[in-house]
Amino acid sequence: MNGVPLSWYLVLSAILFSLGVAGFLFRRNIITIFMSIELMLNAVNLTFIAFSYDLRQVNGHIFTFFVMVVAAAEAAVGLAIILTVYKNRGTLNADDVNSLRF
Amino acid sequence: MTPFYTATDHLVLLPAIMLAFFGCAILLLDHWAPDIMALFRAANPKDRKWLLPVFVLPGIAFTAYTLWRQQSYLAASGATDIQAFQGSLVIDGFSLFFNWIFLIASLIVAIVSYRYLDIEGEHHGEYYGLILLANSGMFFLAAGSDLVTLFIGLELMALCFYVMVGFLRGDRRSNEAAMKYLILGAFSSGFLLYGFSILYGIGGSTKLAAISEAMAARELDDPVLWLALITTAVGLLFKISAAPFHMWAPDAYEGAPTTVTAYLSVASKAASFAFLLRIFLGPFAASREVWEPILAAIAVLTMTVGNFAAISQTNVKRLLAYSSISHAGYMLLGLVAGNETGLQGISVYILVYTFMNLGAFLVIVALRRGNLIGDEIEDLAGLMRRSPGMAMLMLVFLVSLAGIPPTAGFLGKFYIFLALIETGHYVLAVIATLYVAVAIYYYFRMVRTMFLDPSAEQEPLAGSFGLRLAGVSAGVLTLAIGDYPEPFLRLAQTSILR
Question: For chain A, what is the domain count?
């Protein structure tokens, strides 16, 4: 693989994934949380591509396209929902959206 | 070179095609509805009621016919399964059993939503389209045997549910529930996908069969195997709302429109369980030693959280959400036992749970009127005097949820306990039995409110015909499965994943 071993790609994607998880857990703005999830999905894409290149297969590449399509669909639905939340409350802070708690 | 699209492929895919076709047709027709209404000179152009008898019911009927065709084809071939699309989809007793459950749940929810959406003032055609599209996603979850098919099925189902949970656009609680469900659902999908990518790396293929072989060849203390196991399991446990990944469930259940809560708690949970079983009994089967103790601990934690959090709830929907979390714990115990009785027990439990939980939510749907949401426990007060029929139905469902004979809930729990004792998990069996006592407390709190507390209103409930029909059918089935279990047990026997 052009001198760059598979493990480097996997470590990079693991780091990206952890950054996404950390962003999800520690950020309070809903849009930022949503972007962290996209980062997690991109880390997954990198893993798929690295394995697929290493295995000389096309399956992983195709899976990546499915992941991207689903991420786009999720963003469409997600932003629409976030927009209605913003319209009804005027805030995008996750801590302020808390009327469903006992 | 195998042919690209064979007759078998078509037969196997047909239910999903039917559901997606009718789902998309409803979406389009809803868009064109004003023109169609003008064409027929309708008195009320905003009316969308005609979609239900004209498109939804035929769509479900056609899908039922295709499922029945698959079933007879499978029986005639004498094989245990039929592979399609080079092993991406599979028809076996397992997928047929679950697909029937999804279809029945969709039917019941569709006919009940009829009047409920009118009361909420959000009667749009999309709602029915989303139900059918979500159902086609569930089809792929039960019948998929490839990581790509399973992932697409999961997301198709989940995206439809995100929209349905937030269907009451002007309602703050509904928005908030949709947002929490979406964020946590997408987060768990990220974990699941990371697990899938590692599984792909291990197996060198996206086919579950190939991955199973490669996983079996690995050592049990291989860190890569552990990484794949843990990330995939976290994603799956999120979907079935097992503790400690259950936080989304109470919020999503409480905020969603009640009919959607009913659908979410039953169909989505059954589909997620089908998915979980496909993965745990497929690629993960060889590493059972690793995950069995972890899963046992998670099952106990799930029952603890579900049962004890339910005690202090005052909102019926939230209470039923916690109770459905504890039911997921019982179902997981069947997987922990893992023998034939246990797997049969999971199928029986899911079948029974479908009817009793849908039924309990139907009564809550019937309580909705005017300004009253009807989801507080006090709203049940005096139900016995107001509507004896509804009160008796609710009694049957609650007794069944608590697991008391002669109702169906007892049968589900009985098989799980039997499997645990057969496999020597005595401690788990004792813990699970003790939690039944806790469950009886909070279910019977609702029964007491219904029968003993005086009610502010005297007016009987005004349920639509569809709601009464669905409620009575669910009640009769709940009693029938408990009293004449043989045919249902045989059905569950055919659904065991081999």
Answer: 1
Q: Which residues of B touch A25 (CB under 8 A)?
A: none
Structure tokens at B409: 């809930």
User: Which residue matches tokens 């999120």?
Assistant: B238
Distance CA B106, CA B52 (A): 12
**Alpha helices for B218-287 (secondary structure H):** 223-239, 248-255, 258-263, 269-280
Reported ipTM: the value is 0.95
Task: Give residue for tokens 């639905």.
Answer: A77
User: Residue A68: which domain range?
Assistant: 6-89
Let me know: does B399 contact B352? Beta carbons within 8 Å. no
Whether residue A1 is contained in a domain is answered as no
Chain A residues close to B254, C-beta within 8 Å:
100
The whole-number pLDDT of residue B193 equals 96
Residue A97 lies in a domain: no
Query: In this complex, is the C-beta atom of B211 within 8 Å of any C-beta atom belonging to chain A?
Result: no
pLDDT at A2: 63
Task: Report the length, in residues, of chain B.
Answer: 498
A42: in domain: yes
DSSP string, B437-459: HHHHHHHHHHHHHHHTS--S--P
Our CA-based measurement puts residue A10 at a distance from the nearest CA of chain B, in whole angstroms, of 9
DSSP code of residue B287: G
**Cross-chain residue pair B206–A63, CB shorter than 8 Å:** yes
pTM beyond 0.90, yes or no:
yes
Nearest to A51 among B147, B194, B200 (CB): B200
Render pLDDT for B69-113 as a digit per residue (tens, 0 to 9).
999 999 999 888 899 998 899 999 999 999 999 999 999 999 998
**A30 and B177: CB-CB below 8 Å?**
no
- Helix, strand, coil % over all residues of chain A, rounded to 5: 75, 0, 25
d(CA B285, CA B280): 6
Q: Domain with A30 in it: what CATH number?
A: 1.10.287.3510
| Contact state of B170 with A24 under an 8 Å Cβ cutoff | no
Q: Which of A77, A89, A98, A101 should be substituted to probe chain B, the one whose Cβ sees the most B Cβ atoms within 10 Å?
A: A77
Contact at 8 Å (CB) between B178 and A81? yes
Segment (H or E) for A57: none
Non-local (6+) Cβ contacts of B22 within 8 A are B55, B56, B58, B59, B62, B63, B132
Q: How far apart are the C-alpha atoms of A42 and A16, rounded to whole Å? A: 8
Residues in B closer than 8 angstroms to A48, CB to CB, are: 197, 200
Angle at B107 between CA B358 and CA B259, to 5 degrees: 45
| Contact map slice: B 142-171 vs A, CB within 8 A | 147-148, 151-152, 155, 159, 162-163, 166, 169-170
**A24, part of any domain:** yes
